[in-house]
């Protein structure tokens, strides 16, 4: 079985006026189905750029990226939107829920763009909210929920499409310790029990500790890539 | 896709519902524009119909020949000032112009009419019996006089509704009563059915008809026997009006021995000519209405565009999230277009409501005739959708072209 994610010699070059910024410089990365990976790096290391590319929000300047066997670098915008809708769930630092819209409708959002019937959308979103422990809060607006609860709605929104990959970009960055632990417990459980591949971007060591594998990015390349929980079987990713 | 559109419409309604004041103010331009147009068009259509009805009340396919003017000592006598038309002109026309169904004539003067202790100054018309059929007069009670009455110069009269109202008590039966015109007693033998205002706005029911010969000999004291105030003719078909008018002109010029270089000593008018003057007026009105409508819909549209641009900016992150979870360009485009159209459509519907209400008020309060046609309402509806579509396009396109990464980070 091919890896879920395979990046080969990824370059990302931005132009800021006359200056060329090399955000990624020939990055290689491979992630198997079912892994829980933490990506760590200081600001400016290129980890955000990498997240955008892995999340199909952006495309590399050079290099190849296969997601689930699909060559993403060759796709058009609408096809990328389909990939995001079907393969990827996003969890953001600032939750990014739509304000004054119920938790249920927020969780429904990705299904909305699948042309699914309202009844199906509701059923799936209700299930997803249940999986993050938000039964009974379906009709609450984001403003009526705590930070941790809002982030759980965001996780439900990411889960509702049964994606092969969940991308969490500093998911606990705006949360207190207690809520952070809650969120990480949920992610960990989803990884263990449902075999969902999770990529977690963070700069907090205790959060990164939940992952089984730690990839450190520096200056647009992978600096170190190690298995942090020996004993858990991992396929070798580096030759 | 239909499920998507339905849900987007519902979402749009809710989004607008959250900002009721803002949505209301934005719609105001469309509401006022559509409302004003509906009200004005209804009033315009009503006026047009009233004019058409008045033109029709002249009779069917009527040609009127008026005597020309004379200049006496440098004083222009005005139209109809000369006595150039006669009964024999009228009789001759019927013989020589086969297109004419009938010809008639009339002569009028304003005189005092007395019934008991009441009096009224009204236009007394001496007419040929054919005049009544040409001008489509019908009777509320009694009936017309005959050729025999004309031959014997009988003292009989037909009275219009306005005259009846002013000369008789309520409930008093005019038919059979004796009234005096210039102190000559006349027996009323018919009351005319009301016709309302003429195309020129005068009261057609303020009228008394007596036989032409009686008027000439016993009331008016005419200088030139046989001279008429106007000749009337009618044709079978509308298309015959123009050729018949031409033939009347030729015949009359011949009879009046006019040289080719001389001008006509008479004027010919047809019902169609009179109608055209009125139509011209309402066309000017229509053009003005269209201009007003365009300006107010333009202003309304710009209002919608403005508020949508604000909305796109406010909701940049939402757009980013939608794109991240799989919205394509066209989904975002549709979302904002539908919001724009919902605004303009709701505005249009409220405008239609106000317009219809305004037209009704104009009828109830000012007594203006109004016609609210389905076409007008449908056009207003379609226009408001089009305005939403047109002015929503730019903001929607702007939203759909946002880069998801930038949109997600927007503060």
List the keywords.
heterodimer; A: 239 residues; alpha/beta; Rossmann fold; six-stranded mixed beta sheet; four-stranded antiparallel beta sheet; 7 helices; globular; B: 411 residues; alpha+beta; 2 domains; six-stranded mixed β-barrel; two-stranded antiparallel ribbon; 13 helices; elongated
Write up what this structure looks like.
Chain A is of the alpha/beta class and 239 residues long. Chain A has one domain: P-loop containing nucleotide triphosphate hydrolases (Rossmann fold), CATH 3.40.50.300. Helix content of chain A is 33%, strand content 28%. Chain A has a 6-stranded mixed beta sheet with strand order 6-7-8-3-9-10, sandwiched between helices. A 4-stranded antiparallel beta sheet of chain A has the order 2-1-4-5, with helices on one face. In chain A, helix 3 packs parallel to helix 5 and helix 4 crosses helix 5. The radius of gyration of chain A is 18 Å and the shape is globular. The model of chain A has no long low-confidence stretch (mean pLDDT 91). In chain B, a hairpin with a 2-residue loop joins strand 4 and strand 5. Helix content of chain B is 56%, strand content 18%. The model of chain B has no long low-confidence stretch (mean pLDDT 86). Chain B has 13 helices and 12 strands. Chain B is of the alpha+beta class. Chain B has a 6-stranded mixed β-barrel with strand order 4-5-10-7-9-8. Chains A and B meet through helix 2 and helix 3 of A and helix 1, helix 10 and helix 13 of B.
Kindly name the structural category of chain A.
Answer: alpha/beta
Query: Can you list the strand order of the major beta sheet of chain B?
Result: 4-5-10-7-9-8
Count of distinct structural domains of chain A: 1
How far do the termini of chain A sit from each other?
A: 17 Å
Q: Which outline of chain A best applies?
A: globular
- Largest interface by Cβ-Cβ < 8 Å: A-B, 29 and 21 residues
Low-confidence stretches of chain A: none
CATH architecture of chain A: 3-Layer(aba) Sandwich
Subunit arrangement of the protein: heterodimer
Helical fraction of chain A: 25-40%
Q: What's the number of structural domains of chain B?
A: 2
CATH class category name of chain A: Alpha Beta
SS strand fraction of chain A: 25-35%
SS strand fraction of chain B = 15-25%
Number of helices of chain A: 7
Indicate the radius of gyration of chain A in whole angstroms: 18 Å
- By secondary-structure content and strand pairing, the structural class of chain B works out as alpha+beta
